[in-house]
Amino acid sequence: MSYFIIIFLTLLVTTRRDIMYENITGVSALPQYRALVVIYILVCTFYFMYQMFSHFRHLHTYPRYVPYLIFLTALFMIMGAFSPYDNQLNFMSQVHVWCSMLASCLFLIILQIYTYRLSIESPDIYLHTHSIFHVGLQMLAILFLVCGRVNGLIELLYVVMICTYLFLIDRHQKNKLGK
Question: Which pTM was predicted?
Fold first, then answer.
C-alpha cells in the first residue's frame, strides 16, 4: 500500500507544472509548492532508505559498503531538497542539481547491486522481478534521449519503476516465506 502512496504523491507533485516540460525542481521553484516538494522529497528519501535497508537485510551477503552508500544517497537527496533552485544557475542551484542527480544515480546503482545479489541468493525471485527493473531502466534512458532532459514524466516513471520492482520483490519474498 505504501508504494501506491509514494506513486500517488509523485503524480501529485509532478503535475503541479507541465509534466513534459518541467520536473520536480521546476515545481519547487514556485513559492506555493516549495514546502510540498521538500516534504515529498524527505518522505521519499527516508522511505526508500528504510526499504533498501530492509531488502538488503533479507540477503545473506552483500558488500560492506552498501549501508554507507545508502546513507550517502540519502544525504545527497536531503542536501538537494534543501538547496533552493532558481533559473540563474547560482551556486545553490548547482548544489541542488548535482546532489539530486547524484542521489538518483546512486540509488539506481544500489538497486543494481541488490539485483545482482538477488540473482545469486534467490534466483527464483530474481527471474520474476528483474525484467521490471531492467526494462524500466531502458525506458528511462530512451525517454531521456527523446526528451533531452529530465522532465516530470521521467521522474514519475522512475518512481513507478522502483516502486513496482520493490513491490514485486516484497510479494515474492512473502510468498516464498509463506510456503
Answer: 0.91
